[in-house]
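ENTRY TYPE: paired fold submission
RECORD: A
CONTENT: sequence, then structure tokens
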Amino acid sequence: MRLHWLPRPSSFAPPYYRSQVYASWKTRRCYSDEQGGKSLTLARRRITEGQISFTLQRAEKVKAVIEKKSKKSKERSSKTPHNVQDQTRKQKTEQALWFSHPSSPGSPIFTPGGTYVIQKLQAFLRAQYAEYGFQEVITPLMYKRSLWEQSGHWENYKDDMYSVHSGKQSSDKSGDNTFGLKPMNCPGHCVLFSKQRWSYNDLPVRYADFSPLHRDEVSGALSGLTRVRRFHQDDGHIFCRPSQIENEIASCLSFTDTVYRTLGIEDYELVLSTRPDKDFIGTREEWTQAERQLKDALDRFGRPWRYQRGEGAFYGPKIDFIVLDSVGKSHQIGTTQLDFQLPKRFGLKYAAPAKVEGSSGTMAEDGISFEPVMIHRAIFGSLERFLALFIDKHDGQWPFWLNPNPVAVLTVTDDQGVREMATRVAQNLRYPMSKRPDSELGDPFTFGLPLPLSEAATFTPVHLNTSDETLGKKLVLTKDKGTGLIVIIGQRNVKDNTVDVQVSAVLEPKKVWSAIEEIKPGSQAPIKKDTGTGKARGQPGVKLSVVEFQKLSKNLADAYI
């Protein structure tokens, strides 16, 4: 046995051991090499007339104590959010955004707070659709098996689809009673495009769809929000002429980059996925042409990218947007895909003179017809997965406009006047465009003109707390929910019709304070900093009028802060 002596015990021995035995004993750590393996033993040495004696019984007790403490430390660290699943689970419980239920595994149920976030993300994209020429459509949740066979999904994707069988006799001649819940929207958009005659002047045609999708994932693969069976995708499909491909791909890349930068996701990776080795449709020549066009678009975009051989969809190559979570695991979010196959399978056509598109068309009643090219586009991809990665990326912090708990109104006292003002302020913040008198707010028997459609876009969730608890306790509870701005109202505020505002949990506090400075110059509160970390300590506050705070809320939302 070979002994390796290590330093004095103060760095590893438990306190009670040091205090009891250090005076008369000197402890050393030793390793014993036996049969090629190392076993750690804690030994102590007594110096008596130059002889060394080892008491292994006491060493075993010390070892047991150290292992117990190490186990407790691991248990504590395991409770600390350290990856995307733990972080989303933390947000799920503290902010009550979503939950799952055994009756529908893999299908998250969103609470009003979580639904608010999902709808805000959708509204954000809808606000950009006019700029990029997209029109939103609504398509069926399921289609007959014959449609999936026509698109190629039944042959290449049916193992990941849910089949629905009707027990009633089919009224049509085909007798097709088998349906498939759609795992993607592309066949439905092809059907939509086929129901109208198109000229080359009408192209490109761009459809957008937020329909829920279903994919039959194995139960062992389900994981929080990142891998689910039912999800919402910001699906988009573009039908264009071959000469328009390069510009449309570039527009998709630019659109996606704009959205990501607005949401603080700038460190994404671009990957070009090429033809699979098997289970693909179309010829190799068509795949080579499509891959070359995507490569040219990526080179033109100017951002680094790499190949991912054999990972393309069964109908065409694709550009994937990849992000890493906090533990380094990669996740695909957005995608842009080029497809020559589905337009051919669905017989999609547009009319054009031969001098415009060349001689590759076919004769039709209304002239020469050509097949359009189809581009698949998703920016968020699965909104559920994107939400999980967004929470992980920003460590649970929210920009004000996306925060499910953007504003809280707290009272200092239980004075009747303070409560009434707090209720009125909260109502005005929720519905800033309401023209009803204050006395009628919240009255269920008040009838009048309906609120404008723009009211829905400006609605802000406001948490109102007028309980008789102390202000300190209210603040703790409010901050635990990740509230962005905290409005405090006391008797002095009632007298001068103002509110005290604390900037609490916001993603970019400097931008929030800059917005406050624009509304009320000179109001910038000093921010105390911890000399050890350099981070801000405490929440600085500012006094604003109710109108000024309403303007601040609108400015933050409009600027996506």
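RECORD: B
CONTENT: sequence, then structure tokens
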Amino acid sequence: MYQCQATRSTRAAQQAVQLILEDSKPVLQYRFIEQTIQPGPSVSLKCSAVANPTPSITWMLDGLPIPQSDRVVVGVQEGNRGEVVGHVNISHTRVEDGGRYQCTASNVAGSVYHRANLNIYGLPVGRPMATVTAVAGQTLELSCPVAGYPFHTFIWNKDGETIDESLGQRIEVDGTLVLEKVRHSFDAGVYTCTASTKQGRAATGSAQVSVLVPPRIDPFSFNDGLTEGMRTQVICGVSQGDPPLTIEWLKDGRPLSLNGPLNVQARVFDGFSSVLAVSSLTAGHSGRYTCQVRNEAAVESYTATLTVSAPPAWVLEPRDSQVIRGQSLVVDCAARGYPEPSVTWKKKVGSGSDAFRSTELVRPRAEQLSNGSLYIARAEPEHTGTYVCHASNAVNHLSSTINISVNSAPYFLGGTSSEEVRAGETAVLECRVKGDTPLTLNWTFRGAPLHSTSRYIENEKVDPDGSLVGKIEILSASQTDAGDYTCTAHNDFGRNSRTITLSVHDNFSRFRFLRGYIVLVLKDFEYNVYLTHV
């Protein structure tokens, strides 16, 4: 389970997601090879596999479990890279240790195997009577139960009669007897193999073959048109298969016994059938239901899909929201139902039937996230308004209308950061500010509060665009009036300031260079200039 948490001042939000690794069939990463040796030396056979869940590894010799002893050790260990390593260690090998070895890696997702011969030179030696279980309808391979190497001929008998290769039975070059599509009564019995060398030395071994019938499940399906509150049931019937049978139900690949949905019951009748019943359907019951039947021969399953139509219902219903200008905003809107509801956001932009338009088409733009939430990356006053979240599927629809308010601390529009006047003139300083009302403006000069006097005149007005314009007029400005004037605006959501620097020039304070001369402009003689050569 992965969890993400986001916090901002006194608010927090979190979201969790569960990562489930699907089952995977084993893959063999290392396989042992065929060997031909003389009796005596030690031998180690290994194979390794990876899978999820972790696979188990089993070993067989000529199709039978390997009998362990103080010389023959079968084991499993975990490798350095997470793989499972299986091994067979044989010390002081003997002729009877030879044969076809098979390593099988298996888990719930499947199995994979590898075979190779360990040939040990020696005269034929018959193995003890073995019992082999075959599955009806599948292929059975019987290795000749005789140890030794090399062999020249193999002769197979069933219940004392020679094998007829025309009846779906054949003998491979290495002496393996292959039975195609095993039949329950026809292929069961005692099989005997006689292996001979070129020198005429021979030995015989036998195997008792029993045939089991795997389960066969009759197809079943759920009714169409099921809605919430209704009842339903299906029967999983097993028309074929040797007892005892184990019947289990799964939903979406997981056993119902492990936190399955409520109001679901599974009952087994007469050992050959099971009824799955749901007393009151909800959308949460929708899914794939599997009847899994197991006996000694095989595991079979049949799956049917249950669809419960349900109208949308709120999981996270949107609510009225406020946001500060310039900050981001997320408004949740999530609904459940079946089929899964689609979610759309619209904003009110007018009146009548076309009053609402998609938020993707309205400026400034608000984005709808993949989970249905409305996202505003940078809130502006124009985002203020009425919004509706609409959730719908084939069954029904629902909607929720909310208001979004964008609160704004004061912010200034345009204006300059400096002003210049000549001594004796009237200086006019202006600041234009917008933000949530009520707005308050204050002026300071060189850090000290500034109030209206006979020379300092303050006034305010509200322009048609809603901005508050504050002005201060300084009559008959002098050098003592030069400096920094700060206009400070504040409301319930913050404060902001702008500083304007006033420069007051005396009679000779305005000059410029012109072709090597300094041009001085006198206050009282604007049209008469004196030129001084530089």
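NOTES ON RECORD B: Confidence is low (pLDDT under 50) at residues 522-530. The two ends are 83 Å apart (CA to CA).
STATUS: closed
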